[in-house]
Amino acid sequence: MAETSGDLRFEGITKKFGDFVAVDDLDLTVPQGSFFALLGPSGCGKTTSLRMAAGLEEPTAGRVLIGETDITGLRPYKRPVNTVFQSYALFPHLTIFDNVAFGLRRRGVQDFKKKTQDMLELVQLDGYAARKPTQLSGGQQQRVALARALVNEPGVLLLDEPLGALDLKLRRQMQIELKRIQTDVGITFVHVTHDQEEAMTMADTIAVMNHGVIEQMGTPAELYENPRTTFVANFLGQSNLIMATVTGRSGDSLVVDCEGQTIEVEASRSHVESGRAWLGVRPEKLTAVPTGREDHAGANVLTGGKVSDVSFVGVSTQYLVAMPWGEELMVFQQNTGQHTPLGHGDTVDLVWSPGHAFLLDAKQDAHAGMMTPEDDE
Amino acid sequence: MTSTAGVPPVAPEPVVDGETSRRRGWGWLLLVPGMLWLAVFFLFPTVQLVFTSLYDPSGSYETGYAMTWHFGNYADAVRDNFTLFVRSFMYAGIATVICLSLGYPLAYAIAFKAGRWKNFMLVLVIAPFFTSFLLRTLSWRTILSDQGPVTSFLQTIAVLPDDGRLLATPVAVIAGLVYNFMPFMTLPLYASLDKVDYRLIEAAGDLYSSPLTGFRRVTFPLSLPGVVSGTLLTFIPACGDYINAELLGTPKQYMVGNRIQAAFLTEHNYPLAASLSIILMAVVVLMVVFYVRRAGTEELV
Amino acid sequence: MATSTAERSTAGPGTRPHARRSVGRWFANRLVLFIGILVLVYTFVPIGYIIALSFNQPTGRSATAEFDAFTWHNWASICEPDGLCDSLKLSLGVSITATILATLLGTLMAFALVRHSFRGRGASNLVIFLPMATPEVVMGASLLAMFVSLGFDSILGFITLVIAHTLFCLSFVVVTVKARLTGMDSRLEQAAMDLYANEWQTFRLVTLPLAMPGIVAAALLAFSLSFDDFIVSNFTAGQSVTFPLYIYGSKLKDFPPQLFAVGTIMFLVSFVFVIGGELWRMRRRARA
């Protein structure tokens, strides 16, 4: 058995299926004890990366390490790594007890009965030991899959879309549950998902993957507040992207010309030095104010907007504002009673604080990472 | 059976599966013993049979046959036995169609209408066929005989003339074929109907005005793999069968199988028997390939 | 998919506007079941004959006539007709041996085809399919020709029968086991490997138990195909007599009524076997 603890590291990992490059020269360190999410759309290489950590897939190039131990060539059963499979892969011919005890028995653990019982209690399934997987509900099966992997106390637990098959309410519940269990056991969790909300709810650190490479890695707040690419800006939440030109510098900020109006963006949030750029602002960061109503000292303002659509969604009201250059921008306003409700056709200014926008490379696709209807669920 | 948990997996990664579920390596070695068996006891004798079919027909069992690449054997075989071939494929074809029209309602009833009696009905489909095929065919001979109940009944209701008979007619032979190959039709049909989501059939009933249209547009296409394998598993053995023709018919109803059997085992006319066999096999394989192409089911085995 | 419409239609038949249509539908529903049952009854007609005749005391020499008088004699004297029980023994021996061989070889082949990729899979599939597309009379004839040309005339019998039976069962075994394996989720084996089972343990603890229903079904199919085979056996048996050959041999001269008793036993054994298996499965399900 290899060393059971330490950081999980990918060094220069590449995986090709024929001509298709699933994972492209990936370098990644997952710190020991963290809850780490690999987030990306279908086919981005996240599951392939996970399977290479589990030993179910062999990398075309590169190394996988746990601590200082190279596990690249080890067979799956020699690795201190366990997996919660997509749609669980519970053994249908074995009882719940035998499913959970499977790994312990293979390793010849003496008190496997007690450990299995304890683990079933932890996931609140102690009354179900004698049943078969098909007699359990989706949520229960999910917990068995988790118990079956966790009971082995692996150095790293891999979760492949573990909540994908559950309905929304159960998924929310399990997200909190998983987070709690991870905090309790302190094992490194690597969680693969295409659901940005799930990743943000649970993970300490998220790596956003696209086309086999990591676009950006950081805490959920970092990724959301300061995305580096249009893909991240669109894949995590929603963003307004406006074509702009960097014209100069003023203190810690870049001065930007945006369709003839001057805007400032903090230099630490600018990923472009000069020339054309995408100016990005999250819809909830914008405030729509009837034209000429207020003084906006110190804030960025875009004038000349016209409300083209209003939808009331309870906690907030979502506006579409048509700008003079033809683009429609999204504005989400909390229904706190502090904002004047706006009507269709009202002329408005859009106001935001300079610390809330970001500047991205203009060569990137403004639609990258947007949810297409069939991805949505 | 595909997803163990009974819940469909969400957003599968398209690239991964299939590529990895099959390992490259020495796995093909598992194929070797079985393939050897097939090569030695099937391919080799078949090739040998092709050679036999080209022997000089003027030889005999006693004097032996000389290899003269006598392709004329084929022409002779077809010319002398043309009606036998036509009759064989006609009987087998009719029997297959009847099997399908009887087996389909049965399979449909078991799959969707039997409820908790489903498995019991399946058992009933198979059970009779564990009794010897010859015994069953001989029973039919009794049942269909001139004094038997079916003939008398049909004579009473005047479907059959008073001196009419069933035994020793094409009807009896085809009925025997239908009877004996029935489970080969019913079971594949059941297997593919059982996989169909019944809600789709209900939806069809909802979308199309007549149940018949719904059946034609939805149920039948969905069960097509079963129809294809069922008809093949019925048609192929029926083509080569000679027991039904022998026990339920007369030489007037004989099929190619009877001729091959006689040429081989009683006349010892090996070149003739071999060319008849090769022709039969070639025609069956061609029909199967054509049929499978038309039906559009790719993987046959 | 079609869920919403399906729900609507299941709610439909009970409601009033559809009343007339639903009467028709009620009838149509039962009609299919009725036809199905009729077909089943038809398949049992000869079985009824065989069972009835197994209690018949024939007056003449030939037994395939009508019911004359009731007797237990046929049941009490099954082995009385010359060679009947020997033919049964031979048939059992051949079928069991051929079943074991075909199941073993066929299962290995199915595993190779489903679980491994290699060049020539297409050709292998064709070679496996061809015996199924070959009429039995052709297969029997070609085997006999080969045995004769190789000078096996003297050993025609048990060995040649086993060779021939294994051959025609093999493809059916491959197809049956393959169907089961194709439906199996390869993730289950990956999960086992992930849980510290090495290749052999994975096979023994996960793959084999999951493939077992397919393998058992294949073996049953092979056995019934082999036990009942007449055509191929007729070519390859030489002087030995299997049970189907015995029946065939009896059909013209004395037809011993004991044959009907044997037929009835075959039916009953298989029936008890299959029904028993079904009951066992139901009980296990109920207990779980």
From TrEMBL, chain A:
<keyword id="KW-1003">Cell membrane</keyword>
<comment type="subunit">
    <text>The complex is composed of two ATP-binding proteins (PotA), two transmembrane proteins (PotB and PotC) and a solute-binding protein (PotD).</text>
</comment>
<dbReference type="Pfam" id="PF00005">
    <property type="entry name" value="ABC_tran"/>
</dbReference>
<comment type="function">
    <text>Part of the ABC transporter complex PotABCD involved in spermidine/putrescine import. Responsible for energy coupling to the transport system.</text>
</comment>
<dbReference type="InterPro" id="IPR003593">
    <property type="entry name" value="AAA+_ATPase"/>
</dbReference>
<keyword id="KW-0547">Nucleotide-binding</keyword>
<dbReference type="GO" id="GO:0043190">
    <property type="term" value="C:ATP-binding cassette (ABC) transporter complex"/>
</dbReference>
<keyword id="KW-0813">Transport</keyword>
<keyword id="KW-0067">ATP-binding</keyword>
<dbReference type="InterPro" id="IPR017879">
    <property type="entry name" value="PotA_ATP-bd"/>
</dbReference>
<dbReference type="GO" id="GO:0015594">
    <property type="term" value="F:ABC-type putrescine transporter activity"/>
</dbReference>
<dbReference type="InterPro" id="IPR005893">
    <property type="entry name" value="PotA-like"/>
</dbReference>
<dbReference type="GO" id="GO:0005524">
    <property type="term" value="F:ATP binding"/>
</dbReference>
<dbReference type="InterPro" id="IPR013611">
    <property type="entry name" value="Transp-assoc_OB_typ2"/>
</dbReference>
<keyword id="KW-0472">Membrane</keyword>
TrEMBL record, chain B:
<feature type="transmembrane region" description="Helical">
    <location>
        <begin position="171"/>
        <end position="191"/>
    </location>
</feature>
<feature type="transmembrane region" description="Helical">
    <location>
        <begin position="120"/>
        <end position="139"/>
    </location>
</feature>
<dbReference type="Pfam" id="PF00528">
    <property type="entry name" value="BPD_transp_1"/>
</dbReference>
<comment type="similarity">
    <text>Belongs to the binding-protein-dependent transport system permease family. CysTW subfamily.</text>
</comment>
<dbReference type="GO" id="GO:0005886">
    <property type="term" value="C:plasma membrane"/>
</dbReference>
<protein>
    <submittedName>
        <fullName>ABC transporter permease</fullName>
    </submittedName>
</protein>
<dbReference type="GO" id="GO:0055085">
    <property type="term" value="P:transmembrane transport"/>
</dbReference>
<keyword id="KW-1133">Transmembrane helix</keyword>
<feature type="transmembrane region" description="Helical">
    <location>
        <begin position="89"/>
        <end position="108"/>
    </location>
</feature>
<dbReference type="InterPro" id="IPR035906">
    <property type="entry name" value="MetI-like_sf"/>
</dbReference>
<keyword id="KW-1003">Cell membrane</keyword>
<dbReference type="InterPro" id="IPR000515">
    <property type="entry name" value="MetI-like"/>
</dbReference>
<keyword id="KW-0812">Transmembrane</keyword>
<feature type="transmembrane region" description="Helical">
    <location>
        <begin position="218"/>
        <end position="238"/>
    </location>
</feature>
<feature type="transmembrane region" description="Helical">
    <location>
        <begin position="28"/>
        <end position="51"/>
    </location>
</feature>
Automatic annotation (TrEMBL), chain C:
<dbReference type="GO" id="GO:0055085">
    <property type="term" value="P:transmembrane transport"/>
</dbReference>
<feature type="transmembrane region" description="Helical">
    <location>
        <begin position="155"/>
        <end position="177"/>
    </location>
</feature>
<dbReference type="InterPro" id="IPR035906">
    <property type="entry name" value="MetI-like_sf"/>
</dbReference>
<feature type="domain" description="ABC transmembrane type-1">
    <location>
        <begin position="88"/>
        <end position="277"/>
    </location>
</feature>
<feature type="transmembrane region" description="Helical">
    <location>
        <begin position="205"/>
        <end position="227"/>
    </location>
</feature>
<dbReference type="Pfam" id="PF00528">
    <property type="entry name" value="BPD_transp_1"/>
</dbReference>
<dbReference type="InterPro" id="IPR000515">
    <property type="entry name" value="MetI-like"/>
</dbReference>
<comment type="similarity">
    <text>Belongs to the binding-protein-dependent transport system permease family. CysTW subfamily.</text>
</comment>
<feature type="transmembrane region" description="Helical">
    <location>
        <begin position="259"/>
        <end position="280"/>
    </location>
</feature>
<feature type="transmembrane region" description="Helical">
    <location>
        <begin position="126"/>
        <end position="149"/>
    </location>
</feature>
<dbReference type="InterPro" id="IPR051789">
    <property type="entry name" value="Bact_Polyamine_Transport"/>
</dbReference>
<feature type="transmembrane region" description="Helical">
    <location>
        <begin position="31"/>
        <end position="52"/>
    </location>
</feature>
<keyword id="KW-0472">Membrane</keyword>
<dbReference type="GO" id="GO:0005886">
    <property type="term" value="C:plasma membrane"/>
</dbReference>
<keyword id="KW-0813">Transport</keyword>
